[in-house]
Amino acid sequence: QDNSFEQFIINYCNEKLQQIFIELTLKEEQEEYIREGIEWTHIEYFNNAIICDLIENNQTGILAMLDEECLRPGTVTDDTFLEKLNQVCATHQHFESRMSKCSRFLNDTSLPHSCFRIQHYAGKVMYQVEGFVDKNNDLLYRDLSQAMWKANHSLIKALFPEGNPAKINLKRPPTAGSQFKASVATLMKNLQTKNPNYIRCIKPNDKKAAHIFNEALVCHQIRYLGLLENVRVRRAGYAFRQLYEPCLERYKMLCKQTWPHWRGPARAGVEVLFNELGIPEEEFSFGRSKIFIRNPRTLFKLEDLRKQRLEDLATLIEKIYRGWKCRTRFLLMKKCQVVIASWYRRYA
């Protein structure tokens, strides 16, 4: 219920993770259709870049203004920090404050004078400004670092490398918000180089009990996880896409013309395969390098046909093997019978 600086930076990290989720799923989804030349109706979705900018902008962001308050001379309090927010962020559509110049919040009695509210992608969160300045300073004095570095214990000495006289830095130590912002930037840069897979976990109830399903709680999680936008984009587009070569390799046994080997371009082979199976044209589209399947039922049908075909092929292989084995045994028995008969006639 009471959110302070710690929850603020945690929610900032969540915003950045949501932003990269949007970049790597929803945005990439629509850009792929453009790259592949697929006819596509653009779906609007909420991009939380505006919220991230509100927090991390180098000039007008909340973290930048907090650092400015911590570093400027004169009397600095949490109230002066809130006053600065009211001046700079007053007109921002995702920022609310009781003393904001935006008159629609002046009569909002649910918002105390010492608080501000941010409309995050997951919903509105109210923050108490008390302690923001002190927690953001989080200073480790230079003489303390030097004293700890002179300790005889190797672990303590390793924990305070900034106390090394050879590495003395006369600059003011970075604030907690700046350090966290740099860490988040490093995390985002690392994630951008990966190919992440997202697993969204839904908590059915707060009691951690079985057979209890809280519909309101589940709907709330679906909204703030951004699943609705993802589902809208997926349903409007194509549920499955795959390169022509692996697609042909997986389903080629379903068509006599492509089995066991297809001589020609992979795309032509996939076209022959889908035409032979009688799949409606509205259920798939051919991109520059991939086949796009609109409905999951079509994919399930292909998998069922493939499963049945594999069983038929397994039966065929088993039948041929059993026939070969029985014929080999029969020929061996026939050969033995001829040998036995010839020797019997010789001594008869």
UniProtKB/TrEMBL annotation:
InterPro entries: Kinesin_motor_dom_sf, Myosin_head_motor_dom-like, P-loop_NTPase. Keywords: Actin-binding, ATP-binding, Motor protein, Myosin, Nucleotide-binding. The lineage of its organism: Eukaryota, Metazoa, Chordata, Craniata, Vertebrata. Residues 1-307 form the Myosin motor domain. GO terms for biological process: actin filament organization; actin filament-based movement; endocytosis. The keyword Nucleotide-binding applies. PROSITE patterns: MYOSIN_MOTOR. It comes from Regulus satrapa (Golden-crowned kinglet). This is MYO1B protein. Belongs to the TRAFAC class myosin-kinesin ATPase superfamily. Myosin family. GO terms for molecular function: actin filament binding; ATP binding; microfilament motor activity. Residues 184-206 are annotated as: Actin-binding. It comes from the Eukaryota. One of its GO terms (cellular component) is microvillus. The keyword Protein biosynthesis does not apply.
